């Protein structure tokens, strides 16, 4: 294998050197170096990041790929940890203060006592903020462990309708408090899996159980309606109420289809861009990929218009969606969410199985639009 010096030299020249499973990559080294200090603050990282870590596959007959401590981080800025006080698994996020100077303040604002329990607040709650003594460049925020908003998959149209409602009302809540998210695309929308996964799951292989030895069992959104959250306020901005018409120079978020950012540096309305982000998320994940969401086409088309000035404000989006939602029949709401690439035979079989399960919910009076308590 290459020496560390040789590896770094080759990295400079753009060559990727594969690491052995027991080697931490540079992102992991950052967390490994702070293992003890995080532990002293009440947060325990997984064994892989402990100074005393001995790879489990070296003392057993298992392949490293079958061992939970063989998994690397997906995103170097975020790591899972166990809160020692109550054994709750949480997420820790590393934030560079100079690069994202407003992120912590905006996140804490929505986690303040006055706002955190508001039913329309869909900003990820912040449990704790850690500043480690040796490193003032970074701050670590502690959040709930979440999952992508579309994982597990939506079972019924009604489940998706409830998701849309929470997202629209959550964005409206942010805008009413003069905050533009500026990157509320689909990858920054998550769900709280606590009720969906009563026995939890492994934070790195989320389809596996927390013990890494079997499938993670979950219920449906109809049975256990989840809450959805916006995350990542790295490029968000909060405006003074007196600034009724803010403008921002384009800054790329995760969605590269934003029309006003194409070949332009002209300051634009960040609130209108937020409306595009949400509309385009629904377009990409539902109108393109799923069947049965034609009722959203008109509203989404208006939300993603090329001219930001022609897009509806979020208040109008919420009002129009409420009318759409009330006009959907119970049969439509309980219908199955099907992929566009399903063949006819597959669709018939799955639909028959779906309605067999749905009859039980109807008989028990379970709402077609499941709303979290």
What would your notes on this structure say?
The protein has 373 residues and is α+β, with helices and mostly antiparallel strands. The protein has ten helices and twelve strands. β4 (128-130) and β5 (138-144) form a beta hairpin. α5 runs antiparallel to α8 (314-326) and α6 runs antiparallel to α7. Residues 5-10 have low confidence and may be disordered.
Number of domains: 2
Q: Looking across the biggest beta sheet, what order are the strands in?
A: 1-2-3-5-4
Could you describe the largest sheet, including whether it forms a barrel?
Answer: 5 strands, antiparallel
Distance between the amino and carboxyl termini: 55 Å
Average pLDDT, all residues:
92
GO molecular function, one term: protein serine/threonine kinase activity
Domain Protein kinase: 64-324
Protein name: Protein kinase domain-containing protein
Organism: Boletus edulis BED1
């Amino acid at each position: 294998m290459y020496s560390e010096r040789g590896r770094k030299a080759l990295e400079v020249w753009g060559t990727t050197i594969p690491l052995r499973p027991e080697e931490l990559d540079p992102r992991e080294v950052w967390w490994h170096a702070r293992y003890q200090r995080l532990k002293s603050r009440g947060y325990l990282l997984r064994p892989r990041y402990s100074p005393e870590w001995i790879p489990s596959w070296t003392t057993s007959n298992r392949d490293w790929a079958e061992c939970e401590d063989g998994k690397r981080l997906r995103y170097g800025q975020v790591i899972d940890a166990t809160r020692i006080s109550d054994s709750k698994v949480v997420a820790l996020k590393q934030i560079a203060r100079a690069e994202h100077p407003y992120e912590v303040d905006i996140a804490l604002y929505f986690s303040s006592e006055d706002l955190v329990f508001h039913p329309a607040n869909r900003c990820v709650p912040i449990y704790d903020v850690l500043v480690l003594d040796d490193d003032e460049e970074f701050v670590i925020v502690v959040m709930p462990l979440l999952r992508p908003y579309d994982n597990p998959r939506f079972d019924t149209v009604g489940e998706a309708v409830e998701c849309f409602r929470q997202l629209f009302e959550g964005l409206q809540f942010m805008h009413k408090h003069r905050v533009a998210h500026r990157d509320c695309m689909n990858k920054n929308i998550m769900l709280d899996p606590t009720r969906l996964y009563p026995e939890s799951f492994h934070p790195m292989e989320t389809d596996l159980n927390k013990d890494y030895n079997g499938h993670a069992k979950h219920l449906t959104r109809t049975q256990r309606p989840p809450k959805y959250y916006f995350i990542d306020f790295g490029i968000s901005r909060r405006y003074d109420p007196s600034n009724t018409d803010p403008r921002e120079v384009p800054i790329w978020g995760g969605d590269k289809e934003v029309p006003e950012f194409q070949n332009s540096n002209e300051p634009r309305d960040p609130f209108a861009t937020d409306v595009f982000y949400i509309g385009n998320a629904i377009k990409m994940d539902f109108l393109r990929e799923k069947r049965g969401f034609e009722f959203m086409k008109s509203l989404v088309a208006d939300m993603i218009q090329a001219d930001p000035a022609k897009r509806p404000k979020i208040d109008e989006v919420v009002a129009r969606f409420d009318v759409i939602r009330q006009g959907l029949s119970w049969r439509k709401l309980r219908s199955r969410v099907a992929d566009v690439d399903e063949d006819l035979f597959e669709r018939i079989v799955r639909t028959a199985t779906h309605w067999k399960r749905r009859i039980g919910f109807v008989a028990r009076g379970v709402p077609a639009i499941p709303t979290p308590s």
